[in-house]
Amino acid sequence: QRAATQRAERAATQEREAEEARIKAEKVRQDAQRAKAKREEEEKEAAARKKVEEERRIKEAATAAARSVPKTQPTLPTAGQAIANSPQRTQLDSEREKEHQRYLEIHKTLKQLREFMGQQSKQNAKLKTKMGDMRRELRKSVGQLREGRGANIKQNKAIGDTLGEALALFPEPKISLATLVAQPIQDVQVPALFVYLLNHFAKAVIAQFIKEAAVSPTIADPIGTATVNVFAKKEHLVNGISLIDILIAKFHRVCPPLFGIYGSERTDQGRERLGWWREFPGGPFVSTQMHQDRMTGLGAGYAAISLRNFETSRMTNSYPPYHYWRALAGTLNVPAGQVTDTHLVLLRALLSNSEARFFHFYGESAKQLMQFAVNEYPKRAPKDSVAATLLSNLGNTWRKDKKLYL
Fold first, then answer.
1. Which of 173, 188, 266, 304 could form a disulfide with 220 if both were Cys (CB 3.0 to 4.6 A apart)?
2. Distance between CA atoms of 133 and 114, rounded to whole angstroms?
3. Nearest residue to 172 via CA among 231, 120, 242
4. Gyration radius from the chain CA atoms
5. Beta carbons of 120 and 127 less than 8 angstroms apart
6. Helix 125-143 with 153-169: angle, nearest 10 deg
7. Which residue pairs, CB below 8 angstroms and at least 24 apart, start in 135-141?
8. Residue 14: how many other CB atoms lie within 10 Å
9. What angle, rounded to 10 degrees, do the helices at 355-371 and 386-401 form?
10. DSSP 3-state assignment of 176?
11. Which long-range CB contacts under 8 A does 182-187 form with residues at least 24 apart?
């Protein structure tokens, strides 16, 4: 009887312990469910806040983009309109020439900086080694930029790391910021090696536009994206000022027509004003085909840089779309007697593959400009111009391939 009683007590104890374990397990399960529900609720609230913040940023960015559109847009002259000797033309040419010369001064300053850094490297073995390694890394990374989603993550990181390393390791010597930007500013000093490498980066970008975008204009887009991001990155700003004028100075040097500069293709002086390159300093000019290939690559590259959409980016666009409008308007407003094949080739390169982004920023104004560019502007071209025919045919390409009817 006593054994039976003990067995009954053990059974009761086991049952009680099992019940306690079940209750404990149920409590743990309920606590886990409540924690999960709370976590899900917090995630929903965080997602909602993020969505509201994202919508706010997009709205602000869109408003900023809208403000970048010139309130008074340049007039598109009718075909054959004679404005060459008007006071407006004289003033406009004077303003553009003054701006052009300022950028050429920046280009000259950068050449002097290159010589200065060469002298510095002779006195500092560590600087010499690092400077060469960084220069090669930038050139290699720019040369590897390709089309395709996610294709340039490694290259972009290498470019950013190289510039970041230069800022961290070599804060001295310094150079005046005022000598590197076109607009008057309150001057500060900038690490010279950082500027030197930005200049080398810009040089590699220009070379890549000429080499690859001339053959395949769509490659200009990923190069342009990487380039603008480098100059817009917060760590690369100086007192909030972008150093993209370093790149624009090179465009002024190699492709002046982008900025309303014109001249005759029949004279040496005119060719130089049009960016017609020489085979070597003081040597003969390159062939017409090579010159036009250069203009094609540079035009596509300039469009890729100046038509970037920063509406969803936390960075500020260092070269807003109104610069693209200015390039188009400057080309279209060249006096009738001064229009050359260079302008026609450049205009076609600017417009090809850029119509969607152009419409995004300028809407109906973009349509009107494109209509004039392909329908009227070719009529002002030199007689029997092949470049004019190709520009006119761009309208047919838009209709056939893009279903875009002007």
1. 304
2. 16
3. 120
4. 30
5. yes
6. 160
7. 135/197, 135/200, 137/162, 138/162, 138/197, 138/200, 138/201, 138/204, 139/200, 139/204
8. 10
9. 120
10. strand
11. 182/99, 182/102, 182/103, 182/106, 182/245, 182/248, 185/241, 186/239
**End-to-end Cα spacing for the chain:** 106
How far is the C-alpha of 151 from the C-alpha of 222, rounded, in Å? Answer: 9
- Nearest in space to 322 (alpha carbons), one of 142, 93, 50, 68: 68
Q: Which two tokens stand for residue 107?
A: 């280009």
Residue labelled with tokens 């666009």 = 317
Structure token pair of residue 339:
């229009």
pLDDT tens sequence for the chain (406 residues): 778 888 888 888 888 888 888 888 888 888 888 888 888 888 888 777 766 665 554 444 444 444 444 433 444 443 333 344 456 667 778 889 999 999 999 999 999 999 999 999 999 999 999 999 999 999 999 999 999 888 999 999 999 999 999 999 999 999 999 999 999 888 899 999 999 999 999 999 999 999 999 899 899 999 999 999 999 999 999 999 999 999 999 999 999 999 999 999 999 999 999 999 999 988 999 999 999 999 999 999 999 999 998 988 889 899 999 999 999 999 998 988 899 999 999 999 999 989 889 988 988 889 899 999 999 999 998 888 999 999 999 988 888 887 776 6
Tokens of 240: 């909030």
Here the tokens at position 245 are 């004028």
Q: Which two tokens stand for residue 165?
A: 């390393």
